[in-house]
Amino acid sequence: MTAPPPAGIAHDRLKWLLAAMGLVIAPHALQLPLWLIISVIACGGLRYLLSLRGDALPGRLTRLLAVITATGAIYVTYGTILGLDAGVALLSLMAGFKFLELRNARDALVILLLGYFLVATAFLFDQSLLSAAHAAAATWALTTLLITTQGASDASPVGAHARLAGTMLTQAIPIMVLLFALFPRIQGPLWGMPEDAYAAMTGLSDEMTPGAISNLSQSTDPAFRVEFTDGPPPRGQRYWRGPVLAAYDGQTWTQERTTGRNATEVRALSEPSRYVVTLEPHNQPWLLTLDVATSVDHTAEFDRAHQLRKSTPLRERIRYEARSALHYQLGRSLGDGERRRHLALPDDAHPQARELARRWRDEAGGDRDVVEQGLRHFASEPFSYTLQPPLLDDDSVDQFLFETRAGFCEHYASAFSVLMRAADIPARVVTGYLGGRMNPAGDYMIVRQSDAHAWVEVWLEGEGWVRVDPTAQVAPERVEHGLAEALPDGDPAPGGVTGGDGLVGSLSLRWDAMNAYWNRWVLAYGPTLQDNLMQRLSLGSWQRVVIALTATMALLLGALAALLLYRSRPRPPDPATRAWRTFRHRAARAGLRAPASEGPHTFARRAAAQWPDQAEVITTITTHYLRIRYGRHQTAADMTALRRAVRRFRPSRMSGDAPRAAAEPGAAGSHAG
Amino acid sequence: MRGQETSVAPLLQAAETVILGKTGQVRLAIACLLAEGHLLIEDLPGVGKTTLAHTIGRLLGLEFRRLQFTSDMLPADVVGASIYDRHHARFDFHPGPVFTQLLLADEVNRATPRTQSALLEAMEERQVTTEGETRPLPEPFFVIATQNPENQVGTFPLPESQLDRFLMRISIGYPDSRAERQLLAGQDRRHLLAETPAVMSPEGLQHEQAQVRDVHASDALIAYVQAILAHTRSTPELQHGLSPRAGQALLRAARAWAHLDGRDAVVPEDVQAVFPSVAGHRLQTCNTAGEAVPAEALLAAVPIP
Asked: Residue B253 and residue B182: Cα distance in Å, rounded?
């Protein structure tokens, strides 16, 4: 069972088609299983070889078997053939298979349309500037091939098609901008697959178990970006407040479930400074603020622990403005229940830590002395800062405090909180980010996931919740200079954390600045910003948006049509022709009609015969007109004379049928004689 | 635009005194000559084809030869042959009748295609190549070929591609009654012709030809010629439109026509005047009868831009 040899798609066209589809599928290769990538490449390669040798394409049975096998393989790999990942895999595979039955322009069209769809699906996985650039390039390539395979003559080079495609896509930009701005947006992706859509989001967790491996610190993805109105805060003060963890079960710190709704009172002791945060989506409800925020311009509320929370998880990039005071008093009074909860420790956990805390309590005069004693303990004992701490198995706090003495912020924050609680001081762990690096290329601060930090807040009577950072005692550089400085020599820093120096660093900052703009102006344009824009354009509801969209499109297309009409309008005749037409028009009104094919000489002769009194004028008109239009040399005087003569031409109305002979158009071939 | 009387005016006048009542045809023939093209006359015997050729040759002082084509004629009979000279023991080239300034090729469709093509090649190249040697034909060189459209038995009508070598094709037709009476009452044309002196030298003709080449064709006029060509190509009744070479021929003939009129620039009427003669034999209708194409109808359909 063989198919007729491939016809209709020239070999060099096929090469370009393969190249374009390769470009389209390339980013998907990151998600697709290896066997699938190999299959797709094999399909393309096979088709290429068949074309090269002029062999027949595989028969129907072969293709059918291949499709069934492939679909089965996808089911085995993904457990389904629906859904985002499996769907894209299936689509990529079928695009590869389609090459095996690529015979004519129609098949090429199917492949190219598949290609457009695959370009769009790439955005389901990644929406960065880089993928946008790739999508633009791929769209250009596909459009070029669309021109090449659909009707372009074989002779014209692909480069010319690429230019044409570029022109067409450029012309489409206004429509793209329009659709981008006005097309109704909905919260979340169109496909209801949250686990797919948000699985990749990284960020702080709402629980903390010291001893687990530090994943967070390894990631240099930006967590958020900040633009400061009054300049950035000093380095040691860049504590970005995230989830507050107050519940402790001996292993894991979690957020309190029963946090009171009434916010803690905040008193600013210094002038609050203003800043705008562009927060990456992290699929959690909280927003980050510089400690400690006094007000925020967003639909989010501070809870009892002074966390800023939204009612729903953050699934799109948002921007909000906030004010924070670096010196503050957080909370004035602590209720009994609250106090109890912030002192709670599991009964038989951490005996050694409790013992140590009790000793401090006995020695110290007041709460503040105990806190300082605790900090001194971390500073004086041989604690070390490392991102690769030994695993802690049985009693993590005791083991860390008295055996391993190596860890990072989570260990210190957890252990310190336990010690304080054991010493009868209310304490809780605050997680968030510490630091941030100013990007000179964009004049904003980037805070990365690797800046994640955990510290402690203790309740001191009369002072409220006071921030204490035990990590600072062990590794002051972590606070002052960031993670990389804090690590001992030989400890590998997460890639990119050291950035900022040298060419690579400056390039990476520049790249981040471009991404920041991309995020801010393109990706952050979600339902909220669209709503704002609509309000500013006085377009309230989506119905109005649709009307506006339709109207603008109609306007755009109308303008285009008008432009094309204007371009193709009959060329305005030159002045001589206009004057000549006036002459003929007047003669026609007077009754002397002439076909358009009649030459000027012939017409003039007939006109002169018709109106002998005007013969001189007619001769003048004809002489000058012929000289201007057909002669070798003409002067401005000819034009003047022609105009003047045409004005003087006053034919009398032809009456009856007397001059019929003269009025009849002469034979077109009659010579000028 | 209407120029002064030129030196071609006496030529026209003299020709008209010999050939009575055929002003248009004489004019076209001379225009063809001025445009350095060859002329094909298609008509019945006895209407004055030969007289026309004779007259032109005489008035211009051209070396004139007449060659009657027959079916047994060989190419050598046209272009000449190398003949062994026993006396000098070598081959001598004996130029054929084509080595002349004005050749009247009578009944060219009687000859075999082989012989026809020998002539037509000589016309096109203005040189003759025999036995590897190329010999230029005299200057000026002008062929008037005649063809008898009736009585086609045993003839080889010129194929379309060969017809293209002729700038114009005209027919003469019967004279009107006044001219015919004059013709019958007057002197025999041959004798009259013998008494008529040349009004122009071959050098003078070449000078005129150079002037024709220099006649101006403005953009507007070229646009008109293009419109005509485009129209012939889109007319469904025609098998195919005029070729670019036909367009060049049309413009060349129109230049000559303008020059005959004493102008140094072509006007649309010039094009219209020569169009039937230039295009007639280059266009073929789709119907099998091969009827003549109404050139006037074609022109009437093309507005002058």
From this structure: 31
